[in-house]
Amino acid sequence: MKNRVLCLLLLVAALSSCHTSKKILYFQDVMPGEYETIDNGRAITVQPQDQISIVVSSKDPQLAALFNLTRVQYRAGQPTLLGSNSNGEVSGYTLDGQGCIDFPVLGKLRVAGMTKSEIAALVKKRLMDANLVNDPVVTVEFMNLHFSVLGEVKSPGQYNIAKDQVTILEALSMAGDLTIYGRRFPVSVIREEEGQRVTHWVDLRAKDLFASPAYYLKQNDVVYVQPNKVRAGQSTINENNVKSVSLWISLASLLTSLGVLIFK
């Protein structure tokens, strides 16, 4: 009788452990050694109100300087404005409502919907076509692009985008990963584009995540991780003790000890 009770308790504990694992493990249906085709990904494209820096370099530094905006500073007590050319700081271009920037000499350039490399190629071509610079090297960087991670992660907050591509997994890694109280499904990605707002749900437990339109993030995306029932219960004082994980662990240990003593 004693052995049967112990086996039953072990079976209940094992089933409980399996059920818990299915809730928290990532990529449960991914098979080791299984190859999958990876698409080229979705590089981030700039949109109106985004800010970018464009730096033109050439063998002739004075010529290239004509196309680089220096950040101008004003200090109290100084009769003149001070340029920051000495420390290499460059001012950014902010896309207007039509997705255009006003570039020196070249004038209006529509760059909305372009990646960093596409903008660099456009500026380089326009400079060479106009015989302004024969050997331009154009570098484009993001300046104010970011995404936010909220909810049950270790370090919620706003994070800058420096790369051409940022996945939701990278975003969660930057935020310190989910806490044990975070739900792996659904994780919400709230996105605003072209005057509309849409919310995507992703499941971190399944490989379908890789095919989601929210796998590659865009600027201003908000990633929200919902709390599980335990965390939600802790927000209510009356449920705090009932739904506490430590309480259930203690209770299970007590019942196991009692079972051993009774049927010994």
Summarize the topology.
Layout: H1 2-24, E1 51-57, H2 61-65, E2 72-73, E3 82-83, E4 93-94, E5 100-103, E6 107-110, H3 116-129, E7 137-142, E8 146-151, E9 157-160, H4 168-174, E10 182-193, E11 196-202, E12 222-227, H5 229-234, H6 237-240, H7 245-262
Parallel strand pairs: 8-12
Antiparallel strand pairs: 1-4, 1-7, 2-3, 5-6, 8-9, 10-11, 10-12
In CATH, what is the class of the largest domain? Alpha Beta
Please estimate the helix content: 25-40%
Biggest sheet record:
5 strands, mixed
Shape: elongated
What would you call the structural class?
alpha+beta
Poorly predicted segments: 12-18, 73-77, 79-86
Number of helices: 7
User: Total strand count, please?
Assistant: 12
Q: How much strand?
A: 15-25%
Q: Mean of the pLDDT scores?
A: 84
Q: Identify the CATH architecture of the largest domain.
A: Roll
Gyration radius, rounded: 28 Å
Helix/strand order, N-terminal first: HEHEEEEEHEEEHEEEHHH
CATH topology of the largest domain: Outer membrane lipoprotein wza fold like
Strand line-up of the largest beta sheet: 9-8-12-10-11
When the domains are counted, the total is 2
Structural account:
With 264 residues, this protein is an alpha+beta fold. The chain contains seven helices and twelve strands. The strands form four sheets. Strands 9-8-12-10-11 form a five-stranded mixed sheet. A three-stranded antiparallel sheet has the order 4-1-7. It has a two-stranded antiparallel ribbon with strand order 2-3. Strand 2 (72-73) and strand 3 (82-83) form a beta hairpin. The protein is elongated and about 95 Å long. The N and C termini lie close together (9 Å).
